[in-house]
Amino acid sequence: TRATIDRLLQFDLGSLYRSISDYVSPIFFGKAMEDLKEDKLKETLDLFDSMVAKERFLCGDDLSLADISIITGLSLLEATDYPLSLWRNACKWMDGVKDRLKDFYKEMNAKAIENTRQYVKFLRDVKTDIKTDK
Q1: Taking the model in full, what pTM does it have?
Q2: Which among 1, 45, 62, 74 would be 20 to 30 A from 80, CA to CA?
Q3: How far apart are the C-alpha atoms of 83 and 60, rounded to whole Å?
């Protein structure tokens, strides 16, 4: 229903994506990671994992805009090699969304994930090089 999708989009913007963004932002700006931000991310992922435990998609058997919105944020974590496998239900849900979207997902997200992954690796390598030069 529209109300459920709206609630899920609010959850995404206000909690899930926000905690993802707060966690990964330091990576892109060369700052130290904050344990408090990772703790909040884990709490939010725990909640999301429980939300997708019983249904194929967020609104049952039908893919919704909420699924597409949320997988985009989780893909950012994927690109940073965050251990999403710790949240089995979320991973199963992600696989289902990716499968349902097939070529569209590849075009929409897969290329961006790989580019982001390469950029994060570059930033980590540069940071390591700077530390070893001192």
Answers
A1: 0.85
A2: 62
A3: 26
Helix (H) or strand (E) holding 77: helix 65-79
Of 22, 33, 117, nearest to 79 (Cα)?
117
Distance CA 19, CA 40 (A): 6
**Interacting residues of 84 by C-beta distance below 8 A, sequence separation 6+:** 45, 74, 77, 78, 90, 91, 94
* 83 Rama sector, left if φ>0, alpha if ψ -120 to 50, beta otherwise: beta
CATH number of residue 69's parent domain: 1.20.1050.10
Phi, psi (5° rounding) for residue 87?
A: -110, 85
94 and 57 Cβ atoms separated by less than 8 Å? no
Q: Encode pLDDT of 20-60 as tens digits.
A: 999 998 887 777 767 789 999 999 999 999 999 999 999 99
Instruction: Tell me the residue range of the domain where 43 lies.
Output: 2-133
Tell me if 58 sits within 8 A of 70, measured CB to CB: yes
Domains contained in the chain, number? 1
The partner residues of 60 in beta bridges, in order of sequence, read: 57
